[in-house]
Amino acid sequence: MLEMLNSVLPPMFAIAAVLYLGLAVYVSRSAPNNVISFFLLLIGTMIAGSAFSYGTQDPNIYGIGRTLTFFAAGFIPVAFFMTYRQYTDSKPSRSIVVILSVIPVITTALTMTNPMHNMIWSTIVTDSGVRFSDVTDHDWFIKVHAPFAYGLFGFSLVALASRLPSLAPAHRRPVILLILCAILPFAVNIANTFLGFGPIEFPFLSLALTLLLPMYAYVSVSMRVYEFSPVAYETLFDHVRDPIIVLDNDQRVICVNKNAQEMLNTTEAEMLGKHLWEDYPAARAALNQACELDLTQTLRMDAKHTYEISVAPLLDNRGKKIGTVVVCRDVTERRKALGKLADSEHLIRTLIETSSNGILRFARDDNDEQRRYRCIFANRAAEAYLTGGNGTMVGMPLEKLTQLEPAKLLEHFGDADKPKSPISIETTNEGPDGESWLRIVGEPVGEDFSVTLIDITQRKRNEDKMMADALRDPLTGVLNRRGFEKEAIQSIRSYDTGAVLYLDLNHFKTINDRFGHQAGDALLKAFGHRLEFCLRPEDILGRLGGDEFAIVLPGVSVEDAKHIAERLVVTASEAYIIQGQEIKCTASVGIALMPAHGQELWHLISVADEAMYKAKKIPADEAANDRAAYITAAIAS
């Protein structure tokens, strides 16, 4: 049985230690600087120590395990004491933690140097092997470590349990579970170490903590015990931010909180049994008036502070008045804020009136049988947009303001059952300066709604220009590949017949290399202009790249397509004057017909491209002498 435990417990302890350490990491990431994560880390360290020390005869491994165990056993009581303080009052001061850590630090140092003095354990060599002395055989454990660790842990347990009645009911359950998770292994360890329950060398404490791992995980992960610190009822009074004073039926002070003591610059002991503000007649008068009228009174205590005094009766379980509660609220900053708010409202009103955007507000007219929306506010810009500044708009029904798209606004804001949300509408208007654009932004304001008018004419013009520029080739000014594709597809869909021409300049690379890229760019620009000159308004011309151009001729017959192609080739073959030099350059063309060769743009371009390269095989002299034959040859088969 012992051999089986020796082989089973160490790996089980190792797994449990890793899980506790993982749980500690999870808690620390969820709530940094929380003492619960440190407590779980120490439990994992203690179990890891047992994984090393239990069943081994190697002094070095045993020493590592014992060091981890004593380190954790020394600091677990400190961590639990910090937990107790966190759950009842507040975290202990740093000096208290340092003092409590003295014995654990010394114990850890002694375990690390034990081979030098054997104050914690001794190594005994026998015929059957190596064994180690019990911790109870050594004075440091019996007289120092054990009284400190068990005493501090026991005190924290008892103190935390005794404070349960003062905790809020919602916070008691996790605290009770935490106490149970702590008291069970604590009781097992006491029974093993001091009452002779089981072999002293058997790690009952680590085994108990291992078995309680699911409970600790439930408390930490499911109940998230680390996320809050329960507050005792008796501390609530002192933690209320407002000064509170409790008086008996004779108006004598029977209780004050800390903030009240600071406000009155005195202590509770000095105030008990005295009349409140007996040397302050103005305060007494304000207090009496608040009691009589059941109103909140404002009291200026000094040049810097102003308080609101609220008075309420203090009743017992039978509803009988047993005293009065006086709550004083410092409203100095609030009054300053109200003054600043008034200034801000004036500033906002000025900004609205002088804004370049039109701003209106509409509300239902309760005196109207139809409860129509009427304008209840309009700034100068709104009147300029809608009436030319020649009349007032306040009181005008929404339906008469046709520029505001009233039907859309009424559909959006008129249904009381629909959830209110913003709406944005863009509308155009023809004026003496041409077309103008206006954005109408409606925003719900309670049961009313506001309308903001924004002139977006210039933006629309810029967008149109940017869109046009995005579809144009910057060098030649004709459509680029994207713009050509967009317009050509629409044109092809609108006509049953037509033609697609594909052109390029012959020997353009040679000209580019000979005369330079600037001359080449100028040649392309001139070539594009000549093509545009030969086309109808409905024809689509685009530069696909390099010296390659494509043309869609919608609604033309075969003969018309041949005639236009011939005119393009002849015009393109005339000499160009580029940078003061005469450059001769001819063009080649390929023709695809609709619907003979298809109705899809890029298929037609591909067919025309193939036809152009077949036509290029015709000698230049022959093509120049018989243009009609060349054009016929350029038609795809």
Per-chain topology:
Blueprint: H1 2-30, H2 35-53, H3 59-88, H4 94-100, H5 102-112, H6 114-117, E1 123-126, E2 129-132, H7 139-162, H8 169-194, H9 204-211, H10 213-222, H11 233-239, E3 244-247, E4 253-256, H12 258-264, H13 268-271, H14 281-293, E5 297-300, E6 306-315, E7 321-330, H15 332-354, E8 358-364, E9 373-378, H16 380-387, H17 406-413, E10 423-431, E11 434-445, E12 448-455, H18 457-470, H19 481-494, E13 498-505, H20 508-515, H21 517-533, E14 540-545, E15 548-554, H22 558-573, E16 576-578, E17 581-583, E18 587-594, H23 601-615, H24 620-625, H25 627-633
Helix pairs in contact: 1-2, 1-10, 2-3, 2-9, 3-5, 3-7, 7-8, 8-9, 20-21, 22-25
Sum up the overall morphology in one term.
flat
The averaged pLDDT comes out at 83
* Rg from Cα: 47 Å
Distance, first to last CA:
98 Å
Q: In percent, how helical is the residue content?
A: 40-55%
Could you say what the CATH architecture of the largest domain is?
Up-down Bundle
Strand order of the largest sheet: 4-3-7-6-5
Oligomerization: single chain
Total individual domains: 4
Per DSSP E runs of 2 or more residues, the count of β-strands stands at 18
Name the poorly predicted regions: none
